[in-house]
Each structure stands twice: as structure tokens, then as C-alpha cells.
Amino acid sequence: MHARRRTVIGAVVAAATATAAFAAPMATASEASPMAIKQIASGLNQAWAVDWLPDGTALFTEKDSKKIRKIDKAGKVSDVQTIPGVSVTKEAGLLGIAVSPTYAADQLVFIYYTTGSDNRIAKLKLGQAPQPIVTGIPRGSSFHHGGRIAFGPDGFLYAGTGDGQNSANGQNKNSLGGKILRITKDGAAAPGNPFNSRVYSYGHRNVQGLTWVGAQLYATDIGASKVDELNKIDAGKNYGWSTCEGPCGNPGMTNPVKTWSTSSATPSGLAHYKGSLYIASLKGGTYKTNLSGSGGKIYTNLGRTRAAQAAPDGSLWIITPGGIYTSDGN
Fold it and tell me: What is the pLDDT of residues 158-205, one digit of tens each?
């Protein structure tokens, strides 16, 4: 080919390539990631849980400040109220929050918190004093409080509790510690519970994550020194603690779906979003997995994450102790 012709063709190809690259750039993972997640609140005092009012206002708890706070649709953060009688330690304080699924009719919000003598669940109308509906959930001196609450698709309130630093509580069906509870809005045992009590499942150590895939409940449980767990929860089943940490062959005990080393996971909040599970990790980042727990961490740049929650507007919210983020799950 003539040299001049080669030069002209090369220039045309180069120009076309440059135009195409400008019109539709190939984004790298690092370039795409800032678009996948956006901070909407910062400077928070150990943010712990979030739920939404029917008008789209987000309510969230701060463990250490003992406050319910809110984020309006414009992104403004403001205080709602401080909860009296809350005891704060490294893991204790104002923990879970859940808005009644019939809020338009009853105006009720539910909270889980630690006092000087126990953990408890209370209901309240915003701005008013909380009314305890479940008391006597064991508390440890500092650790193993559980704290996640959420309404299930059946309309009942579920609560993940900790063993209160007494490992025997997990296997004791008469204790509220180391359990998943299922209750009415007045705190009574929900109809159909397996033991005619508030207990729905037992053999747990420190449940801080609850979510549903259809009607199926999943939960995360923080292990002691070996493994953390993702569990598929069915009524009346025994998930092993403290006889087992992780899978074991004991008759009558249900093995976890997935385990991770306690040095890498320490799972807290759990969400089902766009077909995947999102598991907040107190060791940093958030696991994105399938229903069998296979997957890896994303959002590792955020450090310690406390909760993941699917929002009414179709986004995924990620909660860290100091901030709140909205994301597309990627």
C-alpha cells in the first residue's frame, strides 16, 4: 500500500476510534464505583438501624447518642427524640428500629434497646415515651445483645437476640437470649409459634441480621472465635450454639448455609435486594452473595458496616457507624 494512503487510512481509523471512545467510554471498576454508592449522612454517633415511614422519611437509630433521628426526602438529618433509660457499652445501646406495617392507622414505631438490667423491645408514637412490650432479654456486661428487629411478611415482629454472654442461654428454650423471637405488636407470642412462647428459633449466639426471601427468613449470627454464620431459619429449629459453632453432626441441630472466619466477617445487618443477599461486616465492607452465601465483599472502602437495608425508592442503604449511604447494589 502506498505510504501516503496508509497514513490517511490510519488517521481516519484513529479519529473514528477516538470519537467512539469519547461517545461511549469504557469504565473501569474504579471509575464506576463512585457512581454505585453515595453518602447522604455523615458525622453520626454509631448509627445502627434504619426503617421508613410511609411518606419516605427514613428513621434511624444511633446506638451511643440514644437518639432516633430522621432523614427527610431532601436529605436533611434532624433529631426526633432521645430514648430514656438506655445503657451504652461497646455493643449495648439504642439498637434496632422497625416501623409498623400499618403505620398509617396505628402510628407505631418499635425499638430494641439495652437498659441497666436487660434488653427490651418497646413501641412508641414518635415524640412520646416508649412503652416496653418485651423485657428480660438477657444482656451481658458489654456484649452479645443482638438487637435487630423487623416485621416479617406475615405482619409479626421478629427480633434477633444475643446470649447475653451466657452461652447456656442459646439452648435454653425458657430464656429469651440466643433466640429469634416472633411477637405481636403488644409483645405477646405470635400465633403459631413452635413452643407456645415468643421463641421462634433457638441455638443462636448473637443475631444482628434478619431478612426474608419471599416467606423464607434468613439470619446472620456472630460466632465466638471460629466462624460466623448465615442461617436459613425455620420455626422451632435448633441452630447449635453453644454445643456447636458452625456446622456439626449433632442430631436435631441445623447447620448454617454458609460460614466465614470470625476474623474476616463478624456479620451484622442483612438485606435481600435484587436477588442477592447483602451482609454488613463489622470487619469491613459488605458481602454480596447468592442465597447459598457464595460471593465476596464490596464497599470495602467504607470500613466497618453495620446494616444493609432495601429502601422503598428501590435503592440499597448501607449504614456505617459514622455515615449512611445509598447504592445500586454494585
Answer: 999 999 999 999 999 999 999 999 999 999 999 999 999 999 999 999
Alpha-carbon distance of 154 to 25, in angstroms, equals 47
Going by pLDDT thresholds of 50, 70 and 90, the confidence category of residue 15 is: very low
Q: Could you tell me if 222 and 228 are in contact, meaning their C-beta atoms sit under 8 angstroms apart? A: yes
The CA-to-CA distance between both ends of the chain, in Å, stands at 49
Exposure class string for 48-67: b at 16+ Cβ within 10 A, else e: bbbbbbeeeebbbbbbbbbb
Which pLDDT tens digit goes with each residue over 214-243? 999 999 999 999 999 999 999 999 999 999
